[in-house]
Each structure stands twice: as structure tokens, then as C-alpha cells.
Amino acid sequence: MVYLVFGLAAIVTILAAIELSNNADVLGGKTSLGGLLVGTVLLGGATSLPEVTTSISSVLIENPDIAIGNMLGSNMFNLFIIACFDVYYRKNRLLQQANKGHLYTAGLGLILTTMTLIALVRKLDYVVLGVGIDSLLIAIVYGTGMYVISRISEGLPDNQLMTHEFDEKVIGNSKVKKPTTTIRKAIITFLLAAVAIMIAGTLLSISGDIIAEKTGLGSTFIGSFLMAATTSLPEAVAVFVALRLRNINIAIGSILGSNIFNMLILMGTDIVYRQGPILSNVAHSHEITAMTVTVLSVLVMISLMRKRVTTTFSYMMPSLLIMLGYLITSYLIFKG
């Protein structure tokens, strides 16, 4: 029964993510926000709602390892997602066509992940207003970084549409119809889909904890791999739908935006967790995940910064390394 609940919750997240991405595309096209901000802030935050409910629910059932593993594992899986799509659409060189504003988002994600890694290693016991000092600093840096990104993005061109060179054999029918709806309807549908994802995320958390206990795989592996991959399904679907709509900026923005929003979840979990700073009370194996996310984030930034390369293989190299890094880390966590 628990596996059925887990599977149904995963299906709900997928269906809701399709609606989120479709309506985010509408909002990006019909408002002044543009694809970069809509993808990074709205879609990135909404597709991270399963991580919010899963992590907080995991703390409530006294399993902080699933909470932290889910957050860091989701970030690692998100980068794996964008790498897979980048390799699949290698002829179109997605990361080179993207708005350079994504580089700032990736940089903020790198800073936040590095701060988390340091906190996991040092395990400080300082608490401010019931919240670990490390989680509080991460939240402050997140808020400051998002403000800076929003100001910088105002002066950047929003190249939302893919170029005419986008490979029709890979993407499918070149006459993919974009959703046509009003801004009001798009906002309402977007919010309803977000609520559906929140409910599904809670069910994923409860059923995932039961699966961890039944299988004996351990909370760290369940959180960092199974739960992370499942709660990241919205991001995977959102990227796929956005690329079908030929909107690179929303696709990449949803991944990078989700990653930095996931780091803010630390603040929420730390508030709920009452046994001290949450990052000081979890397994050391999370350090491996955090270190991997840090390295993979650097590879994404390299891909965004690079000038045009001569061969397809050299273009794919960072994404191939990201995929390899994800698989190796998952194996190491599984082996314990």
C-alpha cells in the first residue's frame, strides 16, 4: 500500500509540474518579468514545493537525515537533469544560448552550497532565536543574492526563444503550439498546481520514511537518492515542457532557481527542528553530497561562461562530467 501511495504522489507531481511549466511560459510571455525571472523565481520556487513539504514533514517525524538528504540530493539531481537534457540536445548547445543572467543564479547556488558544506563539516552549535547560525546566514545570503539578481536581470536581454537552428529531429514537431490563456487564468492554474504539489510532497515524505524503514536502505540514501529524485520530478517535467515550448530561459531558470530555493528550505527545517542546529545533527555522509553539488555547480558555470567551442564532444564534456559525478556519488551514498 505504501508503494502505491508513493507512486500516486509521484504521478500527481508530474501532472502538476506540466501545468506549472505551461502557465509559467504564459506569464513569461505576457508580463514584463521575462523567462529568466519567471523560471528562477516563480517556476523554480513552485517546483521546489515538494522539497519544502518533504523536508519539513521529515523533521516532524524526527528524521532530519531525510530532510537534509532530500534538499542536497534534489540539488544534485537537478543538475543531473539539466546535464542530461544538454547532452540530449547537444546539437543545439542549450547552455550557450541561455541568458547570461543565469550565471549569477548559478553563482549564488554555488555560494550557498559551499556555506552548507562548511556548516556540515564544522557542525557549529550556535543558535539565534532558535535557529542555527549557519542556516540563518544562508537565508540572509539567499535574500541578498536574489535582490542583486533581480536588479541585474533588469538590464539583460531576455532571449526566451530558441534560435532557428534548434534541431527539429530532436525536439519533435517544430510547430508545437504554445498555451494560449489569459494572465488571470494562468495565475489561478499556477497556484492550484502549486497546492497539488505541496500535498503530494507531504505524501512522498511520509511514505518515503516508511519505505526507508522497511527496506533498511537507510535515511541518508532514501533522502539523497529516492526522495530527492522523486521530489525533483517537477523540475524534470518543467524543463522538458519548457524546451518543447522552445523557452530555454524558463527551462534553465527553473533548475537553478529550484536549487537556490532549496537552500532556503534549511531555514524552515531549522525552525521546526528543536534539538539544535539541524546541520549539526545529521550524518557525515551528507558532506559527500554537498561537495558533489559544489563541484557540479562549478561545471554548470563553466558551461554558461564558455565561448562557442569547435566540436560537439568538447561542448558536452562538462555535462558528461556532471552525469558521471552524480552516478558516482549516488553509489558512494548507497554503499554508506
UniProtKB/TrEMBL annotation:
Q: Where in the cell is it found?
A: Membrane
Q: Which residues cross the membrane?
A: 66-89, 101-121, 127-149, 187-208, 220-243, 250-268, 288-305, 312-334
Sodium/calcium exchanger membrane region domain span: 3-122, 186-331
Q: How does it sit in the membrane?
A: Multi-pass membrane protein
Species in which this protein is naturally found: Paenisporosarcina antarctica
Name the principal localization, coarsely classed.
membrane
Instruction: List the taxonomic lineage.
Output: Bacteria, Bacillati, Bacillota, Bacilli, Bacillales
Question: Which is a GO BP term held by this UniProt record?
Answer: intracellular calcium ion homeostasis
List keywords of the entry alphabetically: Membrane, Transmembrane, Transmembrane helix
Supply the name of the protein: Sodium:calcium antiporter
One GO term of the cellular component aspect? Answer: plasma membrane
Kindly give the Pfam families that the UniProt entry links to this protein: Na_Ca_ex
PANTHER family (UniProt xref): INNER MEMBRANE PROTEIN YRBG (PTHR10846:SF8), SODIUM/POTASSIUM/CALCIUM EXCHANGER (PTHR10846)
Q: What molecular functions are annotated in GO for this chain? A: calcium channel activity; calcium, potassium:sodium antiporter activity
Q: Which domain of life is it from?
A: Bacteria
